[in-house]
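step=encode ok
step=design start
structure_in=
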């Protein structure tokens, strides 16, 4: 996991530099908020990678009852996401929405790390 994390962070740091932004969205992504938006999205992909690995491992360790209880946790995580999206998009715009997704995945991952510890 550590070598993969290092590779992912290295690639994510250079994505905005290497990507031909003018092909994707023209001046919208090449100027203004566009480079910051792409850089934030590249960091979000790192969160997605951890999310997938930990979620698969957690569900492999859970019983049916634990999966059913986890569904109630997911309702709470949805509330956290809605609050984070509302607050962060108010202050940061579209970048705030990506950061709200990062907050959502971080809270879900922290719960999974607790479950994996008891596996």
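sequence_out=
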């Amino acid at each position: 996991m550590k070598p993969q994390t290092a590779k992912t962070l290295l690639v994510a740091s250079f994505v905005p530099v290497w990507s031909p932004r003018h092909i994707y969205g023209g001046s919208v992504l090449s100027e203004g908020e566009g480079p910051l938006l792409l850089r934030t999205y590249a960091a979000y992909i790192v969160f997605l990678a951890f999310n997938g690995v930990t979620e698969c491992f957690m569900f492999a360790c859970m019983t049916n009852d634990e999966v059913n209880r986890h569904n109630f946790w997911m309702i709470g995580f949805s509330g956290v996401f809605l609050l984070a999206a509302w607050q962060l998009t108010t202050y940061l715009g579209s970048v705030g929405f990506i950061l709200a997704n990062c907050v959502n995945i971080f809270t879900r991952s922290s719960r999974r790390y607790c479950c994996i510890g008891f596996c």
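step=design ok
step=annotate ok -> Residues 64-92 form the longest helix (29 residues).
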